[in-house]
Amino acid sequence: MNAVQAATARRPATDPLAVRVLLTGAALLFVALFIVLPLATVFAEALAKGAGAFWEAVKDPDTLFSVRLTLLVTISVVAANMVFGLAAAWSITRFRFPGRRLLSSLIELPLSISPIVAGLVFILLLGDAGICGRFLSAHGIKVIFALPGIILATLFVTLPYVARELIPLMEAGGSQEEEAALTLGARGWQIFRRVTLPNISWGLLYGVVLASARALGEFGAVSVVSGHVRGETTTVPLQVEILYNEYHFAAAFAVASLLSLLALVTVGVKKWLQHHAAGARPGHGCTRGTAT
Amino acid sequence: MKRAGVLPGFGLTLGFTLLYLMLIVVTPLATLFTGTASFSIGSLQAALLSPRVLAAFRLSFGASLVAALVTAVFGFLLAWVLVRYRFPGRSMVDALVDLPFALPTAVGGIALTALWSDNGWLGHLAGSAGIKVAFTPLGVVVALVFIGFPFVVRMVQPVLQDLDPAIEEAAASLGADRLQTFRRVILPQAAPAIVSGAVLAFARALGEYGTVVFISGNMPLRTETVPFLILARLEQYDYAGATAVAVLMLLLATALLLAVNALQGRGAVSAGNARR
């Protein structure tokens, strides 16, 4: 991948110093206004009432419950969407069949749908007045305003992330190595585990990180289907909202600061993964899928 | 590429993919349209033509458009500085650009609200200049710029990286000054990526909820966006009204994106060339 390295190599800036300073200053001011100051606000507000209040807010039973719920939702959703992403990438990149492109765009569809609409469709389908809702409530199964609804809505919004990392990666890699393994007598599962997986592991991890970040922080879709039953259906972002709307600002920002730390870690891990996967993937991952 | 198809697992993986998509995406989305199909014209009019709905659509489309334009300018500036210049902390700034993607939207929302409200650091400053940001349409734009600008940066960066320096040198050797080179040589090659990034930012902005809901104040007719209106109707158990608004938003957004794609059809080809 020398081309990639050459393209990203140092290139001499040809602009006059004054222009460079002016433009860099403007760009950094923008970053300060839109990234650094909002982040600093979170931490300043979180500690506004002292470290004691901060710990009180974090140790609050409702908050601890929301952390457990969010972890449960994130782990189950990301695991399911990882399996889906692998299956989708295998079928789309290793075989030719009519409707392949349609299938790819269908997978990306949730990215262009408002999270509120994502929540709405599950209420329409599974809510008490919904098409399947009557059947469910007749059998005493609660989906909307309960855990299954939260999981379904989160599945919907995070469905594309793993698949859209893997599809271009596996397309670019081609299937020669797998076919070679096949001629040498390997079985399907062996081929996948020994040949495919090692080639795509960085991309897979990258997709999982993106999906986890989105699943952890999903607010709109979960907000619609959760019903905000405290101690039952409040995920961490919803807990932040509840605290904020009840004017417990320091507590809201204390919980928010934990999510912000997690976001900073995510950003760091992303950067590290991009560096590792750079050989296989030119450019940056987060918008590339929709670009091509 | 060589025709693939000898590998095993076709039926299993495709079957699973289709079933999963059907359950999680297609069936839920289809209910949106089976629901609206049963509407009468009269009830649709009542659901969609009230001043409150029209105001929400004006705000959502207007603020998203303004935000997309701002992100186009500053996203390009940021990408340019990150690709072309070297300064201390550059790689940290590069990583931080992804923060709006990684930060839960509710956290971004309350942070921006605290920052721009009257006693916030920037809200105080703006207030002394007579500008109110939080709980006004301007606040909505600020939130949408926050969530949108990384799209432009990440679309433009690879294109700027792949620009052939030889072309710029050629322009310079033929007597073009820097500004001419920028306008005639660099900008035309980066333009398709800028537009694609701004379109993504716009699409995201239209449906954005978490970042906006706190800073907007959600006053009907003034600062209520379409996603909030849908939620407000849901909370009043007005499912039909919520669905009608959601379908209208989806249709308008899709029409707009298709139009931009059609306009950009030829531009996209040159963007593809610029990438290689």
Report on this model:
The complex is a heterodimer of chains A (292) and B (276). Chain A has 292 residues and is an all-alpha fold. Chain A has two domains: 16-46; 50-291, MetI-like fold (Orthogonal Bundle). Chain A has 15 helices and no strands. Chain A has helices at residues 2-8, 17-46, 50-59, 61-94, 100-108, 115-126, 133-138, 147-158, 160-173, 176-183, 188-217, 220-226, 236-245, 249-277, 288-291. In chain A, helix 4 packs antiparallel against helix 11 (188-217) and helix 13 runs antiparallel to helix 14 (249-277). The model of chain A is unreliable at 1-13 and 280-292 (pLDDT under 50). Chain B has 276 residues and is an all-alpha fold. Chain B has a single domain (43-275), classed as MetI-like (MetI-like fold, Orthogonal Bundle). Chain B has 13 helices and no strands. In chain B, helix 8 (137-162) packs across helix 10, helix 10 (178-207) packs antiparallel against helix 13 (239-275) and helix 12 (226-235) runs antiparallel to helix 13. The interface between A and B is large, with 112 and 105 residues.
Q: Please compute the radius of gyration of chain A using only Cα atoms.
A: 23 Å
Number of beta strands of chain A: 0
Largest sheet of chain A, described in full?
Answer: none
Global structural class of chain A: mainly alpha
Q: What percent of the residues of chain B sit in helical stretches (DSSP H or I)?
A: over 70%
Question: Mind telling me the CATH class of chain B?
Answer: Mainly Alpha
Measured between the Cα atoms of the first and last residue of chain A, the distance is: 20 Å
Beta-strand content estimate of chain B = under 5%
Q: What count of domains describes the coordinates of chain B?
A: 1
The largest β sheet of chain B comes out as: none
Mean pLDDT of chain B: 89
Continuous helix count of chain A:
15
The CATH homologous superfamily name of chain B equals: MetI-like
